[in-house]
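Postdoc handover notes: sequence design on the structure in folder B. Input tokens:
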């Protein structure tokens, strides 16, 4: 039996996101959302940078404790859980990794924190709040990087890009979501410039 790959805690598209932050002083004439995305990222550049720094510290801590690693699925949501005559089974193991258990728990705990106590009771493993932050932060930063990459490049004005713009706004407007970045790092949403022009 082949062991699953071990989580390396790398941040997807981190180099591209850093490059985008460094390019906010120049116009992004890439499509309808290019300039609004540039302005949005420029306003929140300090916050994003602080999050990336905080993520790096949490990742270093996780790497220093490999003994906490367990087999994790990566996406243990209802779409990947089937009820069979023999009981519930988890399917689609494409993203299986050896990683801290919080890799599978952080998203579930967003809507029901009782899963954390239930997991500890079932396994005897104490949940690490820093590791929960690590994987939640990784998701948010990955989403920001993905949408910034989209808008920094040539893009069409479609329903999909409009939805992507809304998602980018969401991930760049939650000062209360990330106290690690400092209370004044993320600007308030009601003073946000750079909204895309009306059709």
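Designed sequence:
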């Amino acid at each position: 039996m082949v062991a699953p790959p071990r989580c390396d805690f790398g941040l997807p598209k981190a180099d591209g996101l850093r490059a985008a932050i460094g390019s906010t002083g120049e116009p992004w004439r890439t499509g309808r959302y290019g300039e609004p995305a540039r302005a949005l990222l420029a306003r929140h550049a300090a916050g994003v940078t602080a999050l990336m720094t905080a993520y790096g510290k949490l990742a270093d801590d996780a790497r220093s404790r490999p003994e906490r690693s367990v087999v994790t699925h990566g996406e243990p949501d209802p779409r990947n859980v089937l009820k069979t005559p023999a009981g519930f089974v988890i399917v689609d193991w494409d993203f299986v990794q050896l990683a801290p258990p919080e890799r599978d728990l952080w998203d579930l705990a967003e809507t029901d924190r009782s899963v954390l106590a239930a997991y500890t009771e079932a396994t005897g493993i104490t949940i690490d709040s820093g590791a929960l932050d690590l994987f939640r932060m990784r998701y948010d930063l990955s989403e920001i990087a993905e949408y910034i990459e989209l808008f920094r490049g040539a893009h069409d004005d479609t329903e999909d890009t409009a939805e992507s713009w809304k998602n980018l706004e969401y991930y760049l407007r939650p000062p209360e979501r990330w106290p690690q970045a400092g209370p004044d790092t993320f600007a308030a949403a009601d003073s946000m410039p750079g909204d895309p022009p009306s059709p």
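Context for whoever picks this up: The first strand starts at residue 70 and ends at 72. Don't rerun without checking with the PI first.
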